[in-house]
Amino acid sequence: MSHTFDTAGLDQCPFMPVFGAPAISMERGSGTEVWDTDGTRYLDFLSGIAVTSLGHANPVIADAISRQANTLLHVSNFFTNPQATAAAVKVNELLADATGHAGQIFFTNSGAESNECALKLARKWGGRGRHTVVSAYGSFHGRTLATLAATGQPAKHEPFAPMPDGFKHVAWGDLDEMWASVDSSVAAVIIEPIQGEGGVNPAPAGYLQGIRDLCDEVGALMIVDEIQTGFARTGRWFGFEHDGVSPDVVTLAKAMGNGMPVGACWARTDVAAVFQPGDHGSTYSGTALATAAVSAVIDEMRRLDAPALATSKGARFATALEALPQVESVRGRGLILGAQLSDGIDAPTVYRALLDRGFICNPVNASTLRFLPPLTVSDSELDEAVALVADVLAEVAP
User: Fold this and answer.
1) CA of 345: how far to CAs of 239, 273, 328, 366, 387, in Å?
2) Positions of the chain with pLDDT under 70
3) How many Å apart are CA 398 and CA 393, to the nearest integer?
4) Fold of 72-304
5) What is the 3-state composition of the chain as percent helix, strand, coil, each rounded to the nearest 5?
6) DSSP of 42-56, one letter per residue?
7) pTM, to two decimals
């Protein structure tokens, strides 16, 4: 299968080269399937990186967006709108159930903006001289300068040095190092329940609880980045629920709009109260179009019992992957899974071979394939995926 990008007679690619040269132009999607402009069908087990959790062109979400587009797209934040209010209430209900605390929402356009809001909130909470934020190596929190500084991947910092100050990184999963690094200068710890971009690394047992205890002891905020793990992906509404902890701040995006660019920063009411008018903002915060999608996603996920879907489908898929002789182990929870390949098998090579066969996943590092199918994936699609992966691994195995 050849992958070509039609430049339609353009002298150059119109996009900045931050994603590399686009190889395939996707034209339409339905459920777990997408088709390129040549009509080639692909089974999508990436979901736009954990975004289209209810499937491509989900008719319930599409109808909600269409109705809203014909009613009201946007007003300034001098006003609110019924869609934003309804969506904020629904997100708050989910997080109040999960944390045991009432909270408040700031809507954003992306995960990076959600984390940016959380970082500013932490600095305002801590005050002058208590602005440091601690995160883990291998983490990913965004690509704005502040969220990039929070991201524990020094290679990504280098082209943009010097980074903003006030950020420290510690070894993932090492509570002793975390305790040694968090002192009275620290405003917050930001942590993922499962490191997605870092290789699908679930938090070790007791790790999140240890961070909660530490934050309580020193009076720092615990920020949980649920941008990839939130909205039922792990088999619970939020990844932190598996560990029984209650964060102070939770950041969200990706699946909450099923493709509509939208995110949110949630904070306990007493924490949110440190923000005053003018401290933060966004032209498109709570715009009616995006929040109509959020409400529809939550309603549909509740109707389907999306956490139960992720649990059952994830167990079936993980068991089948683990049975493949070239797979050493499978990490993750629900339908955020990473298959650790045997020594000598290059994940990017496997990815390219799978793409040639019409299957989309992600080589999250040199030895791990990441799978993030829609929560609505069918058993037959799971079986098709396993068969494709098995065939390619058998071909490339040394």
Assistant:
1) 30, 51, 11, 9, 18
2) 1-9
3) 10
4) Aspartate Aminotransferase; domain 2 (3.40.640)
5) 40, 20, 40
6) EEESSHHHHT-TT-B
7) 0.96
